[in-house]
Design a protein that fits this description.
Mean pLDDT: 88
Strand order of the largest sheet: 8-9-10-14-13-12-11
Number of domains: 1
Largest sheet: 7 strands, antiparallel
Helix content: 10-25%
CATH architecture: 3-Layer(aba) Sandwich
Distance between the termini: 23 Å
CATH class: Alpha Beta
Order of helices and strands: EEEEEEEEEEHEEEEHE
Number of helices: 2
CATH superfamily: Mog1/PsbP, alpha/beta/alpha sandwich
Number of strands: 15
Oligomer: single chain
Shape: globular
Structural class: mainly beta
CATH topology: Protein Transport Mog1p, Chain A
Length: 202
């Protein structure tokens, strides 16, 4: 439960919505799912980068990104010291910062609940100088969401994190961008789209 932090950033959050697909948070990136959806494992038989999707047959997840060529994908083999195994990053910088998404997978004890994981993640962020502005969870899909803020060298950024438990693993998907008008609407929509595309393979 120590790997919530991968890249520093910031998020301002507004109210949570309940919708047909589950619990959703309204954020400056757009609506971001709190609840985790699944995809059929037989639909993704191949491992690694498949067009504009990345499939992990070992950890049983898939994530997708826009088809317009504006995002680079970096697979970490093995994962870097912070535990990041996949990074999606814009080719262009906005406000001297490249918005990005990273995915961490860590093995956790079978006794850990999503509530405990969320509590541990919030504590870790607070201890590392992040200002946690909102957190919420969906027990039904063993998922949660955290919004936190931090100022780094290039200025104020924001961070949106989804976390999902499917024992024996916990998955943390983090989106980061600069605040204010420096991040275009299109990039904001890309970030929320990538965050929302994450599916566990069942």
């Amino acid at each position: 439960m120590k790997k919530w932090i991968a890249l520093p950033a910031l998020l301002v959050l507004v109210p949570v919505l309940a919708c047909g697909a589950g619990v959703t948070a309204k954020t400056p990136m757009g609506d971001i799912a709190v609840s985790c959806l699944t995809a059929k494992v037989q639909d993704y038989p191949n491992d690694g980068i498949q067009g504009t999707s990345y499939v992990s047959t070992k950890y049983k997840y898939v994530v997708s990104w826009p088809k317009d060529g504006t995002w680079d994908v970096q697979e970490k083999k093995p994962p870097d010291p912070s535990g990041v195994m996949l990074v999606l990053i814009t080719k262009d910088a906005f406000g001297n910062f490249k918005p990005n998404i990273n995915i961490i997978v860590e093995e956790i004890p079978a006794s850990v609940t999503i509530g405990q994981y969320l509590t541990g993640g919030v504590a870790s962020l607070n201890q590392n100088g992040f200002n946690v502005v909102a957190d919420m969870k969906d027990d039904e899909t063993s998922s949660c969401f955290v919004a936190s803020t931090k100022t780094i060298e290039v200025g104020e950024c924001y961070l949106a994190q989804r976390a999902i438990i499917s024992h024996p693993y916990a998955y943390v998907i983090t989106g980061v961008m600069r605040t204010g008008d420096v991040t275009p609407d299109k990039v904001r929509k890309d970030l929320s789209g990538i965050l929302n595309s994450f599916r566990l393979l069942k």
